[in-house]
Amino acid sequence: MTLLDHVVLQVDDLNAIGDWYDQIVSLAGGTRTFDMPNLIGYALPGQPAQLFFSLATDPGGRQTHVALRVEDEATVRLGHEFATAAGAEILHEPRLWPEYGPDYYAVFIRDPAGNNLELKCQASTGRPTLST
């Protein structure tokens, strides 16, 4: 399993820097596969549409976003419990994110330095399992 799932760097102007990153990311074998007004993303050819590197503009601040891939839904919830106990700001509670994929399950946490940390997994059944 891979520890790092994806990274999103914050930039001032996507249009100004997007072409530059298109060239740089192509050196690593990536191509632009996702293009929205506030986000462009890159993936590896022949891979699912999973983004591994993105650029975004965030009018709410200049946070870096890092997503760590974890084993399962229980681990996502464990990360949420740890962050809550440690007093971290929870940006988004653990849940399915169908806009990112049918089995995309994640929690979004503000780390102590102010960055947006995501713990994510592929849900085992398209819905998270329940804790017992």
TrEMBL record:
Species: Trebonia kvetii
Residues making up the signal peptide according to the UniProt record: none
Ranges for domain VOC: 3-122
A Pfam match: Glyoxalase
Protein name listed in UniProt: VOC family protein
Cited PROSITE patterns: VOC
